[in-house]
């Protein structure tokens, strides 16, 4: 393999037959054929065959296999066959579900996979990282994740964190010079960059030398470990519950078995009882349903602009009680337009700008030079703050490309949100001029002179006061104000941070960035949902407060705090004020971590947005780190657990509502499955204790648990979100899903269904042979559980939820009904499922007794809905009375 660190830039370029204008399309095609895609080969995926076999490792399946063997021993071959078919079907279902879940995870991964900026055919374009080929000219800037190895061709203060390869956590400075050695350790190859490193500062142009498995990363990770998604807390606690349940079932079965043998039943009959009980108790579909509902939920969220990177974030979203959001672009539109400029002690509206004034001309020209953006034929590329400046220049017929060609950039210190300044060096009229733009407070602190039409003079306190007054006036209207300064240098040099002082003040440019229309409603929804919205911004306190007030974040009694004030606060002082601080202005990314930690120490679950390279630690610290899909750096996306593809605050609130809804749907599905199982267990236990015959054959219970129960459970999981989910308080993260009241309702509903099932069984026993009674019990239980699916759609009655609002629940019900009737009335299936033909009166009993529990539950819900409405009504009228009393007072 060639060593590019000891080759000059020119030789390296020659090797790939490429110039700084990049490869042509046909060259890219050729390279792609030769080197393949820029991906690391993942460890071989589990084969479908082994996934299928894994399904039989479950303790619950082992119990079913035992049931099949016992059925065979009792001469019940049909039953054995059905159980085996059911086990195999269950395994097929499990396999399909595994593959589907993996596919959906992969498609989410693909949505959030990194991109790279390259020059091809002389044009800068963005391509998926997998399409980068050796020979590509790659452009890097702060915040980028480097996707391939490469030789540095142009370097502008590039600093790179290579800790993923070298373990060294400090960022390293890079250069372009050739290293005249044969062997150089990776960490010392300062003219090279490597795949998986992060750009922490500066920018550079790179010639890609190695991609995919040929990169240094590919060499270390010869086979990438398959990145398997960890189970979510809910899945873990349900797995734990299933294990405990299995053990409990085995113990109860043993007791029932002993009891039956003691009563003098044959061992085989007693065994069948125990098997029926085990099958009734085991919620076979539980874990698949949770995974399916989570997968469907995340797919839906990705269509609504929120890509979930970690499944556990879906559950976490429902617990969020604080959202710390950036202002620019998330709460506002990030569409900046210049409104006015302040130059030569005059505030001039943008429409009245006149370039005949040399000072105005110098300010506008400087805003083009100290600027990385372009706007060509309406195609805006770059930071909106800078694009606004370019658009202003266009209004005065200044073309940024040709102007920059006339005064090329000799050196630069890029903008970063800690320093809040950007500087560039140019040769203008035989002078070396450093132009700096940035936050007004930072720049004024470093200003010593001011230029007016009367010439350059010392910058006085009076000047500072006047400029601050202008700033106050502009910021109070929500305008962002940028300050401009310059300084002449004696000679051409590489700019360093030390140079950013002793400026001559040039002027101010103010721009508007209107709030997003949806922000106001989203903030209102947050407050209704007991979620505190907090604005964290690098912008000026007055600008931030004006916007925060407009969208409802800064309310009466709330305060705005600046980064500097925050530095002066002790932790206890911060904690004391925390609840009332709604705006943090002029903060740097480090402050964000302190704010998250403070809220977390109050046991709050915090969602935090971030886009910059320095935001990564805060995104990792937050419970839900949210990166921006459009403006976010790759580094922030890498650290986040969720990505907003529209950068919109309202999407966060919608995701929280979706998160809450998914959790409550899962809870309702679990309630449905467990209450159904409880009814089966109670019925079998009752028969065993009362020395009645076995009410159900194992196949009956398997039919219900696996077929007719699964469909309503999934349908419940698809219940749509209503505005109601945002009325409740956030869920306590430590609250177990199986709360006392939840278990109580499961037991009560299970008992109700069991009672009517047993009434049906008794009528069958009274009327005829055991077979008829057992068929009646089975059909009643199955149908009652199908009806029960409607009860579990939500807390409220079906009329409040909307009878036809969830079409899936009707599809599930009707499919279940058809399946049950097929088993009851098709002769071949009757034998297979151990059912006997029923008289029409029996069928009527079945429908009546199956519907009865749902009728009772719905009547109870209707009464509760009415009283809830009354309570709400009286509480809102009390509120109204209270507020009108306030007015009187
Ligand atoms: P957010 O609200 O998302 O934190 P922000 O744009 O207000 O975003 P920063 O990007 O950190 O925060 O900007 C902080 C300050 O730096 C701005 O208020 C502005 O004064 C200044 N600034 C912003 N962009 C530039 C730039 N490209 N060059 C120079 N100064 C800038």
TrEMBL record:
Signal peptide feature range: none
Location (main, coarse): membrane
Organism expressing this protein natively: Clostridium weizhouense
Subcellular location: Membrane
Gene3D superfamilies: Calcium-transporting ATPase, cytoplasmic domain N (3.40.1110.10), Calcium-transporting ATPase, cytoplasmic transduction domain A (2.70.150.10), Calcium-transporting ATPase, transmembrane domain (1.20.1110.10), HAD superfamily/HAD-like (3.40.50.1000)
Topology class, membrane: Multi-pass membrane protein
Pfam family, one: Cation_ATPase_C
InterPro entries: ATPase_P-typ_cation-transptr_C, ATPase_P-typ_cation-transptr_N, ATPase_P-typ_cyto_dom_N, ATPase_P-typ_P_site, ATPase_P-typ_TM_dom_sf, ATPase_P-typ_transduc_dom_A_sf, ATPase_P-type_domA, HAD-like_sf
UniProt-listed CDD domains: P-type_ATPase_Ca_prok
Feature: compositional bias, Polar residues: 873-889
Transmembrane spans: 56-75, 81-99, 245-262, 274-296, 670-691, 697-717, 746-764, 770-787, 808-829, 844-863
Keywords (A to Z) from UniProt: ATP-binding, Membrane, Nucleotide-binding, Translocase, Transmembrane, Transmembrane helix
Domain Cation-transporting P-type ATPase N-terminal: 3-76
Ranges where the record places region Disordered: 870-889
Name this protein carries in UniProt: Cation-translocating P-type ATPase
């Amino acid at each position: 393999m060639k060593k590019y660190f000891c080759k000059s830039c020119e030789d390296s370029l020659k090797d790939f037959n490429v110039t700084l204008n990049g490869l042509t399309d046909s060259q890219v095609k050729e390279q792609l054929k030769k080197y393949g895609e820029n991906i690391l080969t993942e460890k071989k995926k589990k084969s479908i065959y082994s996934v299928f076999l894994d399904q039989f490792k479950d303790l619950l399946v082992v119990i079913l296999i035992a049931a099949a063997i016992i059925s065979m021993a009792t001469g019940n071959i049909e039953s054995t066959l059905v159980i085996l078919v059911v086990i195999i079907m269950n395994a097929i279902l499990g396999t399909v579900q595994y593959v589907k879940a993996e596919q959906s995870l992969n498609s989410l991964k693909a949505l959030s996979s990194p991109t790279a900026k390259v020059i091809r055919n002389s044009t800068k374009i963005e391509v998926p990282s997998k399409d980068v080929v050796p020979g590509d000219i790659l452009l890097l800037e702060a915040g980028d994740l480097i996707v391939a190895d490469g030789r540095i061709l142009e370097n502008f203060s590039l600093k790179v964190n290579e800790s993923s390869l070298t373990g060294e956590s400090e960022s390293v400075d890079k250069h372009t010079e050739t290293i005249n050695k044969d062997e150089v350790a990776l960490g010392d190859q300062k003219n090279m960059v490597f795949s998986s490193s992060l750009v922490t500062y500066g920018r550079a142009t790179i010639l890609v030398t190695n991609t995919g498995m040929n990169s240094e990363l590919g060499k270390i990770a010869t086979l990438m470990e398959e990145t398997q998604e960890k189970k979510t807390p809910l899945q873990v606690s349900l797995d734990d519950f299933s294990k405990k349940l299995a053990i409990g079932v085995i113990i109860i079965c043993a007791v029932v078995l002993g009891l039956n043998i003691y009563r003098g039943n044959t061992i085989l009959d007693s065994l069948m009882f125990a098997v029926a009980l085990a099958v009734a108790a085991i919620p076979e579909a539980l874990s698949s349903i949770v995974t399916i509902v989570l997968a469907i939920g995340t797919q839906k969220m990705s269509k609504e602009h929120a890509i979930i990177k970690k499944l556990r974030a879906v559950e976490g979203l429902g617990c969020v009680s604080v959202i710390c959001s950036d202002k620019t672009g998330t709460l506002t539109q990030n569409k900046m337009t210049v409104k006015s400029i302040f130059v030569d002690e005059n505030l001039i509206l943008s429409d009245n700008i006149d370039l005949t004034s040399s000072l105005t001309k110098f300010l506008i020209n400087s805003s083009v030079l100290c600027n990385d953006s372009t706007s060509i034929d309406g195609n805006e590329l770059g930071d909106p703050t800078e694009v606004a400046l370019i658009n202003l220049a266009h209004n005065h017929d200044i073309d940024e490309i040709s102007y920059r060609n006339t005064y090329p950039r000799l050196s630069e210190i890029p903008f970063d949100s800690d320093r809040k300044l950007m500087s560039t060096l140019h040769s203008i009229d035989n002078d070396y001029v450093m132009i700096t733009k940035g936050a007004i407070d930072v720049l004024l602190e470093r200003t010593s002179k001011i230029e007016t039409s009367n010439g350059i003079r010392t910058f006085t306190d009076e000047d500072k006061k006047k400029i601050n007054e202008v700033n106050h006036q502009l910021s109070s209207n929500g305008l962002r104000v940028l300050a401009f300064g310059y300084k002449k240098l004696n000679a051409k040099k590489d700019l360093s941070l030390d140079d950013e002082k002793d400026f001559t003040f040039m002027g101010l440019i103010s721009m508007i960035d209107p709030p997003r229309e949806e922000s106001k409603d989203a903030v209102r929804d947050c407050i209704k949902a007991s979620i505190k919205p907090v604005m964290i911004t690098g912008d000026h306190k007055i600008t931030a407060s004006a916007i925060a007030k407009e969208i409802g974040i800064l309310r009466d009694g709330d305060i705005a705090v600046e980064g500097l004030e925050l530095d002066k606060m002790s932790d206890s002082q911060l904690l004391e004020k925390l609840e009332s601080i709604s705006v943090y202005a002029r903060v740097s990314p480090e402050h964000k971590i302190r704010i998250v930690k403070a809220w977390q120490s109050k046991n709050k679950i915090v969602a935090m947005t971030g886009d910059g390279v320095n935001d990564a630690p805060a995104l990792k610290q937050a419970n839900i780190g949210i990166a921006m899909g459009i403006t976010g750096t790759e580094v922030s996306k890498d650290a986040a657990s969720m990505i907003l593809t529209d950068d919109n605050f309202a999407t966060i609130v919608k995701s929280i509502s979706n998160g809450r809804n998914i959790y409550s749907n899962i809870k309702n599905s679990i309630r449905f499955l467990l209450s159904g199982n409880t009814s089966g267990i109670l019925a079998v236990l009752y028969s065993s204790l009362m020395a009645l015959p076995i009410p159900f054959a194992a196949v009956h219970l398997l039919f219900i648990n696996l077929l007719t129960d699964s469909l309503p459970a999934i349908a419940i999981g698809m219940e749509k979100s209503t505005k109601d989910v945002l009325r409740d308080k956030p869920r306590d993260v430590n609250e177990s899903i199986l709360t006392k009241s939840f278990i109580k309702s499961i037991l009560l509903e299970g008992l109700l269904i069991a009672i009517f099932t047993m009434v049906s069984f008794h009528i069958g026993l009274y009327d005829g042979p055991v077979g008829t009674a057992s068929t009646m019990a089975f059909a009643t239980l199955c149908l009652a559980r199908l009806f029960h699916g409607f009860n579990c759609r939500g807390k409220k009655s079906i009329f409040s939820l909307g009878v036809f609002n969830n079409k899936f629940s009707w599809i599930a019900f009707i499919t279940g009904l058809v399946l049950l009737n097929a088993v009851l009335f098709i002769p071949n299936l009757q034998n297979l499922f151990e059912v006997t033909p029923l008289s029409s009166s029996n069928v009527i009993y079945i429908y009546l007794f199956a519907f009865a529990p749902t009728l009772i539950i719905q009547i109870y819900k209707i009464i509760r809905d009415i009283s809830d409405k009354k309570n709400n009504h009286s509480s809102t009228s009390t509120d109204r009375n209270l507020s009108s009393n306030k007015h009187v007072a």
